[in-house]
């Protein structure tokens, strides 16, 4: 179960413990830790994890100090194979969503026969955020922070010279990063005389709107499939089913992916501007154009795309002037089925569904049930 409820509280003392105990009875231990943590802590949790040759994956530093990974060992155990993955997954950005959180990490493996016991150092640094937050703005920061620590280790054995000092120094860095991003959206932190950590959150896009199972995603930008194999696995499964006609619940069923995962993937595509959402097409709907409709009269590229999209298969593409005249007749009080019969859209060569979808997509056509 994903835990998304977050409320402000100033409670201290035994209150967190009672919350955790109550939540465990309802949600299970891993989810309970998430619930309590995000009710009482900053929205970003930063971690530094190493592979200890005796203990295995170990949390060496975390901010806040009593962070989510230290709060409940069951959660850490469940995520440990992603926090310290196999060597094939090192030096790559890993984003995993589970137990109500999204873990963004960049594991790094350094080889040196003389410097390290068993010839290598394996560590991971990253952020943990609630799974209802969009991870995209934080991913480049995690990659950059990992490269900073990698450079410090190569230059001065910053991570390996003294385990006790390392924990304290890294936790100070994580604290400064979290506080800086939380308050200012940027971090400029001198580490030593030669190294300064610079991190800046990119311009925040508006949060994507709520996404519902009955909505239909429509592509408004082409997908570059040349590196499709490197995309998120959920997106790889659902993108082939985004055809402009299937609604989200249908996509989840056809892709055999849990509905909530599909909704999160759709939110991501909305956030980066690859799709728009419209309601399910019905002939009983009433449509009306908005002032944005003038874009179709002024934009030649939009006109060409509109003609391609709405033309019935096997028909001669109608002139844009005829399509424009048809759209102009959409008025309140006229159901779309009546509109199609009155203007004989099939004879014009316009696909009824594509016509409504295209207008809704490029001109923000209003729909009334």
Describe this structure in words.
The protein has helices at 15-27, 29-40, 68-71, 73-83, 139-156, 163-183, 233-238, 248-255, 259-271, 294-298, 300-310, 320-328, 336-343, 345-348, 352-363; strands at residues 45-52, 56-63, 94-98, 101-105, 108-111, 120-130, 186-190, 196-200, 216-219, 275-278, 286-288, 366-368. By secondary structure, the protein is an alpha+beta fold. The strands form 4 sheets. Strands 1, 2, 3, 4, 5 and 6 form a 6-stranded antiparallel beta sheet that branches. The longest helix is centred in the middle third of the chain and has 21 residues, at 163-183. The two termini are 34 Å apart. The model is unreliable at 1-41 and 362-369 (pLDDT under 50).
Oligomer: single chain
Q: Flag low-confidence runs.
A: 1-41, 362-369
Quote the beta fraction: 15-25%
Instruction: Report the order of strands and helices.
Output: HHEEHHEEEEHHEEEHHHEEHHHHHHE
Work out the helicity level: 40-55%
Major sheet attributes: 6 strands, antiparallel
Radius of gyration: 26 Å
What do the pLDDT scores average to?
Answer: 79
What is the end-to-end distance? 34 Å
Which descriptor suits the 3D outline?
elongated
- The helix tally amounts to 15
Going by helix content, strand content and strand pairing, the class is: alpha+beta
Number of strands: 12
Short description:
The chain is α+β, with helices and mostly antiparallel strands and about 375 residues long.
Annotation keywords:
369 residues; elongated; 6-stranded antiparallel β-sheet; two-stranded antiparallel sheet; 15 helices; alpha+beta
